[in-house]
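#onboarding

Welcome to the new folks! Below is a worked example of what a typical request in this channel looks like: someone posts a single protein sequence, and someone else replies with the predicted structure as tokens. Don't worry about understanding the tokens yet, we'll cover that in week two.

Example request:
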Amino acid sequence: MTNFLLLALLLLSYCCVVLCRDHPNILDTCFDAKYHKLKPVPEPNLHGLCSPWKSRACCESNTTLAFHLNDVWIGFTWNHCPGHNLSESCRNWFMKDLCFYECSPNTGPWITEHKISIRNERFQHTPLCTSQCTSWWEACKDDYTCLDNWGKGFNWTTGVNTCPVGTTCQLFSQMFKNNATAFCNQIWDYSWKVVPDTRPCMKINFTGTNPNDAVAEYYANINATGKNTIKHFLLLAALLMSVYSNN
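Example response:
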């Protein structure tokens, strides 16, 4: 019984952190990062490949213009392999991915703490449609990189990411062993989780109305159901603790 109560206390402490995040409406929020707003609002002048997010965005137009025009953004360059700049088609897909990162209002259900110099939060294990991943992979498989996870491992001594000593630049197809899913899942340290198109999933390439609004709402409802279950368990644990302490 004592062990059960200790477990309940631990769960109470953990779940309070999870349930008490300062994102009261996860369908109308932006994660905490350097150029992100607190809440998404219309931005009619988003630049280039970010324009699909103009109806409701976590980014500003000048932010999207800046990273469209520069090969280095917040100290990071996709062109880290000397003599091997990304092809235009691959760069466009990474640009769409960056537009999602900076602009998407739909990351709420997957926000997690991640305290580094450019952000305090990130999104993780966000469902990405297989068809989107496949198109991204096809655009990039013949380009070059030296790491299979761009979220960690680079040398930053120059202020811009460079390949670590001991690594070699090779084709994406070699680095990821011709596995599109591994590429999409790993490239940003599991920000994405590739799922079949038959399941609700995110699109980083779309036109017209943002299809990701409905995806975020679907998973937010699932999360809410899970949190209510946790709350009921905690209430039961608190009741048992009260009864135990009075005996």
